[in-house]
Every structure is written in structure tokens, then in C-alpha cells.
Amino acid sequence: MARQKVGSIGRALLRHRGATSTVPALACGGLASNGPSPAAAQKCCRGGETCGSEAPKAPPHRHHVVGKKRSEESLTVSGRAYSSTAPKINHKTYLWARYNEMKRLVHDLIPPGVCNLLNPSNIYANNEVNLAEVDIYGFDYDYTLALYSNALDAMIYDTARDFLVKHYKGISKYEYIPNFTARGLHYDIQKGLLMKIDAFHYIQLGTVYREMKPFYMPIRFSAPLQGPKMKQYMDVFSIPEMTLLAAANDYFITNDIEYDPVHLYKDVSEAIGMVHIKGYMYKWIMQDLEKYILRGDETYAVLDRLASHGKKLFLITNSPFSFVDKGMKYMVGKDWREFFDVVIVQADKPHFFNDCVKPFRRLDSNGDLQWDKIKSLDKGQIYKQGNLFDFLRLTGWRGSKVLYFGDHLYSDLADLMLRHGWRTGAIVPELEVETRVVNTEQYAQSLTWLQALTGLLERMQMHKDPESKKVLEDWLKEREELRAVTKNLFNPQFGSIFRTCHNPTYFSRRLCRFSDLYMASISCLLNYDLSYTFYPRRTPLQHEAPLWMDQLCTGCMKTPFLEEMAHIR
């Protein structure tokens, strides 16, 4: 199907090329570097139609012109005629002609089907991974085996806000706003600023919030992005906390109350922590599994398929056994432990991966601690705490034959990839929604035209006359509007979690660094054979050609592979 769609682009290109040889619009400023001169373009107006009289014909070719008459006659150089009496170039008309022709190409040569090339159930590769070499599959629980509905975010927010009311009574009026924030944002603790930062430590303009509205911030950010002054929110559970921070800051600022943002951050963090420590979240989910847990049947299908193919499975989670047990029974069945060779709860990640002090403790079937020394990790048993070094020693599961899935890039995946050589898979639930946005015609048309317009600005900036400068200013304004449109399609405040205007986000760079594969949910594994090899797509560097043949062959092309559009980047 993807190849048929790519073929339709090629056929559209052939039809377009056949037509442009006789279409007057191309005389108004084609895209090729050897296209018509600005003089030829002056008879075109902004809409692309012709206006005024025909361009004056070049004077007849003459030889042996001498004296003063030589400067008044046309000169011939390499067969091309030049005249000192050539009409004055209308740069404004020429620029708009180029603009209109580029816009026609973008509009006409993207067939409707090209907008549905991405499948939300795809698995994406940062490194080459051959599943035939993977014998052991490991999983986190929350937001990996168990996906939760958005109703959980509202409950966490409301409960943490109620903890704060005793200190800040006016905050009770702030209701939870779904999708106000996005994963991967940074929070400046000392200034109380929530912001989106790209992979090169630049702040995306318009994505800094101190209250519930934008706050101006210089584009370059030079302070460390980790440490006591800065917090990055990397997991899905952090979304209610970011929203509550914005609401609390808004309460103090709008009421003109003096406050220390550091104290506020501490209070909000403690309130959110109380929701987890006191077990409120566990209680809500256990009382209404159907309301909060999503797609449990898919979790069963994944585990059953892996186990039936002889793969070893293990679970390492920070959640308590009673909570995990009830959720797994709901999703998989009462015999869910038969799927797993090792089950570890309350593991205290990320310390589990880098601390060799805490020993494993065994739990009985009721979840009570036992006192025997752990000499092996046995199937059917439940273990608490422990550390990765003992886990490796007792199981012998090392290196690239192990693939572990989790949702938190730091707590779940970073140490495993950097220090222990495991393969890692990141679960990014937001990927499903963002893929649907990318597949819309509005996004495809807006983004392609944004890139085309940027190319025009880059090539036409040598025109310095006042009228040309005014045209370029109009284009720059339109470019900013297009950036806002594409950003708002994902999230009106912060846009996509993967991109700023043109760079990857800081979150996206960490995702590429700490995960070999990433996907919306573990159910994406059901779409692939267990001997499948994932290959990372080659993406061009700034100095390389913008389009590659593998993009054409795999149907992952975002803009038509056209000579005329070679400047679209």
C-alpha cells in the first residue's frame, strides 16, 4: 500500500511536468535554479495570473558594434542577450510568483492517501534489534503491563490539591485541566517556571508558563538541566504534579501574595507524594479496575505469545504485591504468575539497578515477609526489594539477550542500557495520539508548506529593496503562524513531546539515548514475528540530502521526492 501511494506521487509528478511546459504560471518563477529571470516574472501578479503587457522582446542580434553605440545596443555573451535598456525588475511581483508556484506544488503533489502512512501500532527503532536473539523479556508494571485512563490523573490532582488547601485555601477553586501539560517538561524550581526545552538546551518560544498563561523567557537556557535547581518530569504520573504547580503559582501571583517558589515546589511535591505513599492511588484502582485499567486483554495476549514461544519472562516493579496481584488477575487471570519466571515487587527503582546493598526478601502467598536467605530466584515465588547485581548472579541473564520494557527513561531504562548492556524498550502512550495527529491532512499540508516557505525565505533573502523586505516580513509572519498551527495540533500550551519547532525535544533525545525500541504499548509486539529485526531509519544530517530512497521504499516519506522541491528541508 505504501509503495502504491509513493507511485501515485510519481505519476502526479509526471503529469505535473507534462503540464508545466505550457502553463504560463511557470514563467512566473519556477523553482529550478535556472528558471526565468525576475524580468520575465514581472508580468505576474500575486495570484499567479498574468497582468499587463507582454515582456519586451530582446533587440535583434548584431555584430561589430563600436563606439558609444556599443553601450546602447544589446551585447551578446555566450548566446544570451543583455540590454542596458532592459525594463526595471519588479522584485515584489517576482517573489510572490515564486511563492505561488511553490504553494501550488505543495498542494497539488501530495495525494490524500499520503497522510495515512504511519501506523499507531508500529514499533520504532533507535538501534538495530533482532528479536530472534532475545530470549528473556522483562517488564515494569505501571504504564507498561498496566495502562491507566486519564481519570486517574484527575484523581491524583484533586487529592493532592486538597492536601494543600490547609496551607493555601484559595487553591481549592482550581480544577484539573486535562492535557494542560505534557511529559518531558522542565521546571525551574527557584523561578517557578514550567518550560519545554529542546535537545540543544534551547527553550521553545511560547512554551514557558509561570502561571496558567505564557511567560516570556530568553530563548537560550544556560543553566544545568539536572540538579537541585531544575526538575525534569519524565513519566506519565508527573502530569498532575505539573498542572498543580502551575495552578499554585497562579494562585499566589494573581492574588499578589509574596511567596518563595522553592517552598511551593516542596509543598506540591510532598502533596503528590502523599497520594502514593498513603496508598490512595492503589486503593482507587483496586476498587474500580474497569474504570482505570485499559486494554488488559492485550497484556494477556502478549504474555501468552511470548511464553508459548519458550521465552523467559520477569517482572520488576516498584508497586506493592497486593496491588500488582489484583491488577494482573483482572488483566491476565488468577494464574498470572505462571507466565513469569521471576516476580519482584517494591524494587525501589532506580536504586535497584545501581545499589548492591539491599537483599531480596521472599513474600508468601498473602504478601507477608519471610526470613529465609535467598539462594535462588524461583518461578511461582514473589520477591521484594533486592538489587540488580544479585539478580544477575542468581539468574545469569546478561547482555543483549535480555529486553526490558518500561515507561520511565531514567528509572527504568538508563542504567540497564548504559551499565549492563540489556536491550531496552520504552513505552510511550502519547505516541498513539501524536501519530494520529501526524496522519491528518491538516498537519501534512501545514508542515510541508512550512518547510517550503522556510526554503523560500532562505533563498530569497538576498533581495534587499524595501518592497522585497516587506514581502519577506509577510512570509516570516506566516511562518510563525504555521509553527503555532502545527504546535497546537498536539497541545496548545507545549506542542509535541517529541519536537520543538524544528529540533527534537530534550525528552526525545533522552528517548533515543536510553531505548533501543519505543512504542505506544507492549501490545505493539503482537504485530511482529518473534524473529523480526528492527532497523533504525537513516535520517539526514544537516549537510546531507534531505530525502533518502529508504523513505520512499518503506512508505515513510513526508514530502514528495521532487526536483522542484529539493529545497524543502
Total beta-strand segments: 19
Indicate the radius of gyration in whole angstroms.
Answer: 30 Å
Helix content: 25-40%
| Mean model confidence by pLDDT | 82
- Ranges where pLDDT stays below 50 over 5 or more residues in a row are 1-83, 548-569
Rough outline? globular
Class computed from helices, strands and strand pairing: alpha/beta
The largest beta-sheet arranges its strands as 3-18-17-16-5-12-13-15-14
End-to-end separation:
25 Å
Q: How much β-strand is present in the residues?
A: 5-15%
Described by strand count, sense and barrel closure, the largest sheet is: 9 strands, mixed
SSE arrangement:
Layout: H1 2-20, H2 38-41, H3 69-72, E1 75-77, E2 80-82, H4 91-108, E3 124-125, E4 129-130, E5 136-139, E6 147-148, H5 151-165, E7 186-188, E8 193-197, E9 203-209, E10 230-232, H6 239-254, H7 261-277, H8 280-287, H9 289-292, E11 293-294, H10 296-308, E12 312-316, H11 321-331, E13 342-345, H12 351-354, E14 360-363, E15 382-385, H13 388-395, E16 402-406, H14 409-420, E17 423-427, H15 430-438, H16 441-460, H17 466-488, H18 506-514, E18 517-519, E19 533-534, H19 549-553
Parallel strand pairs: 5-12, 5-16, 12-13, 13-15, 16-17, 17-18
Antiparallel strand pairs: 1-2, 3-18, 4-19, 6-11, 7-8, 7-10, 8-9, 14-15
Helix pairs in contact: 4-16, 5-6, 5-7, 6-7, 14-18, 16-17
Task: Write up this protein.
By secondary structure, the protein is an alpha/beta fold. The chain is 38% helix and 12% strand. The chain has 19 helices and 19 strands. The strands form 5 sheets. The protein has a 9-stranded mixed β-sheet with strand order 3-18-17-16-5-12-13-15-14, sandwiched between helices. A 4-stranded antiparallel β-sheet has the order 9-8-7-10, with no helix packed on it. Helix 5 (151-165) crosses helix 6 and helix 16 (441-460) runs antiparallel to helix 17. The chain is globular, with a radius of gyration of 30 Å. The two termini are 25 Å apart. Residues 1-83 and 548-569 have low confidence and may be disordered.
